[in-house]
Amino acid sequence: MSRTSERAVKSLERLIHDMAEKKGIDPDKAVHVFRLIVSPTNSKGLSDEDLEPLTGYKQGEIRKILRLLYDLRLATYRRGRHPKTGSTRYYWVVDREALNTSIIRRKKAVLEKLKTRLEHERNNSFYVCPQDGSRYTFDEAFDYEFVCPRCGFMLEEDRSSSDYARALEEEIARLEEEIRRDEKEIFGS
Ligand SMILES: [Zn+2]
User: Fold this and answer.
1) In CA terms, which of 20, 102, 151, 175 is 20 to 30 Å from 4?
2) From the CA of 160, how far away is ligand 1's center (Å)?
3) 126 C-alpha to center of ligand 1: Å?
4) Which domain holds residue 134?
5) Sign of torsion over alpha carbons 112, 118, 121, 122
């Protein structure tokens, strides 16, 4: 559970970056806050007041980022008391289990896409334009009477498609093995 691969964290950072951008939050700041929370030195959690001097970002910005991480189910909080004033504070931590589950979910989604693509490759023969490299299924090429609709060159059968299918197969096998390893590590099954 405690181990989260560096590569997986990178892929989450890309997700945070994209989602922050969509919400009008500075994406680099969002990734920065996530890195601070995910850091092993932060096992007790960081409050927004802790994060302010650590980042130099405004309180409002930090709250929006924390809310985003919460909505993405990457961060969670525990309630605590301010050591001096006794008022309620929220200490933000990364929910490791949710994090790892989310990583596996993303890998599975990629796996499904690869499988669909492989099926598409296997069920079709392809034609390619020697001039501009555009690629068509047999049905499309047939409709165009084997002439490229973009430039008028005769389409040729794409002989590299079996190489592409083989590369996809290898990628699928690699990813399946990776997911198996992750699940074993996280769920012990
Ligand atoms: Zn062409």
Assistant:
1) 20
2) 17
3) 14
4) 99-187
5) negative
Same domain, 181 and 153: yes
At 177-186, the pLDDT tens digits run 999 988 887 7
- 77/136 same-domain check: no
pLDDT by residue (tens digit) across 73-90? 889 998 988 878 888 999
Please name the residue ranges forming H helices in the chain.
6-22, 27-38, 48-55, 59-71, 96-123, 138-143, 161-187
The one-letter code for the residue type at 7 is R
- Cα of 155 vs centre of ligand 1, distance in Å, is 8
What is the Å distance from ligand 1's center to 158 Cα? 13
Q: Report pLDDT for 10.
A: 80
Q: Are residues 103 and 144 in the same domain?
A: yes
pLDDT of residue 69: 93
Distance from residue 168's CA to the centre of ligand 1 (Å): 25
Name the pTM for this structure: 0.63
Task: Say how far apart CA 107 and CA 175 lie, in whole Å.
Answer: 7
Residues 16 and 81 in one domain: yes
Position 90 in a domain: yes
